[in-house]
């Protein structure tokens, strides 16, 4: 397990650690309820430096990546970010990525444990293009701010007013003497901002944000509480809710797909599925009451298997256990009651996000 760069700082605060995709992450700081409340009502800071970063250089980097992902890249303005999926020729997912297009290169923000897989996938199709792939995980890292006081904390840390950023909007700045890129990350929490930091500058930036957040109720946020927030927001995670048999449209990733960009690997399958107007199954929300069941549990309607659970949490917003899961299109209507495995416990189909 690859340790966190800031392991010593987290350990000093009583952090508990876990493995995520072969990389170390903070599971929690001993007060999950306080972490959750800070993210909902004040501000929370998450060390996301366990994520992997791939860098693409060369004159053809944009055109090459454009043909490899579901999202627009060639016409993405320099300094902009976007979310994309990578799919194989059958339209099934290889991974997902957030793309950050910079003046001299393109960065891919990837789930931990997927960096080598993505690099192998891209290199397979890299033939004559002037493009090179580099593992930049040791060079770049991410910190994530969530909560309604995020802008206040960034204003204090930057020493200048910080206006909220929309999803994928970017802004460069200097923070604690480090060049950072601020990227709107509002899918999980509507005020979220990811701070891209040179890995060598992680400690001063973490300390500066912590100090600036002291007056605003900032708490450090562990991975387990981040997962709770993610599920409540209805956001799928690759490796958990999406795997190498998932078609992006099944996972509600329409926003990751450009329908005007032309050809890319797997484009024909995605286009056919879009033209058909429906998928046989879709990711949806499920209300579980007090049922204590694990991801992978089958969902049945009568004697027929109609789906399965992927992520399960106890939701403060709903006051019960909730889940993300795939359900056959004939059973997707909100309020449809399904049996969990052999029963007698049941699940009720619910719209996403759970917080709406």
UniProtKB/TrEMBL annotation:
Annotated Pfam families: GCV_T, GCV_T_C
Keywords from the UniProt entry: Transferase, Transit peptide
Gene3D superfamilies: Probable tRNA modification gtpase trme, domain 1
SUPFAM superfamilies listed in its UniProt record: Aminomethyltransferase beta-barrel domain, Folate-binding domain
Aminomethyltransferase C-terminal domain span: 281-354
UniProt KW Transit peptide keyword: yes
Top-rank lineage group of the source organism: Bacteria
Residues of the GCVT N-terminal domain: 6-261
A GO molecular-function descriptor: transferase activity
NCBIfam families referenced in this protein's UniProt entry, alphabetically: ygfZ_signature (TIGR03317)
Name of the protein: Aminomethyl transferase family protein
């Amino acid at each position: 397990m690859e340790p966190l760069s800031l392991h010593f700082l987290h350990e000093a605060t009583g952090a508990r650690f876990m493995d995520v995709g072969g990389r170390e992450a903070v599971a929690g700081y001993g007060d999950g309820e306080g972490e959750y409340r800070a993210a909902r009502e004040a501000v929370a800071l998450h060390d996301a430096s366990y994520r992997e970063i791939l860098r693409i250089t060369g004159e053809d980097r944009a055109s090459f990546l454009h043909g490899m992902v579901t999202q627009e890249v060639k016409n993405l303005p320099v300094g902009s970010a976007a979310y994309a999926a990578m799919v194989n020729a059958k339209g099934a997912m290889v991974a997902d990525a957030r793309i950050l297009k910079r003046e001299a290169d393109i960065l891919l923000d990837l789930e931990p444990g997927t960096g080598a897989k993505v690099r192998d996938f891209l290199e397979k199709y890299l033939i004559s293009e002037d493009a090179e792939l580099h593992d930049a995980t040791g060079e770049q890292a991410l910190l994530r701010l969530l909560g309604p006081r995020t802008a206040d904390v960034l204003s204090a840390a930057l020493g200048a007013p910080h206006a909220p950023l929309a999803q994928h909007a970017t802004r460069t700045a200097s923070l604690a003497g480090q060049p950072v890129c601020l990227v709107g990350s509002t899918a999980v929490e509507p005020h979220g901002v990811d701070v891209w930091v040179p890995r060598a500058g992680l400690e001063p930036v973490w300390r500066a944000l912590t100090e600036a957040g002291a007056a605003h109720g900032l708490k450090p946020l562990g991975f387990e509480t981040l997962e709770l927030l993610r599920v409540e927001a209805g956001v799928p995670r690759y490796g958990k809710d999406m795997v190498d048999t998932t078609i992006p449209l099944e996972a509600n990733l329409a926003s990751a797909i450009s329908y005007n960009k032309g050809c890319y690997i797997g484009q024909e399958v995605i286009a056919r599925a879009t033209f058909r107007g429906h998928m046989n199954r879709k990711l949806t929300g499920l209300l579980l009451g007090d049922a204590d069941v694990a991801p992978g549990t089958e969902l049945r309607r009568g004697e027929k298997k109609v789906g399965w659970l992927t992520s399960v949490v106890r939701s403060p917003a709903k006051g019960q256990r909730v889940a993300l899961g795939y359900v056959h299109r004939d059973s997707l209507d909100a309020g449809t009651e399904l049996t969990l495995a052999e029963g007698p416990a049941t699940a009720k189909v619910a719209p996403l996000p759970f917080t709406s």
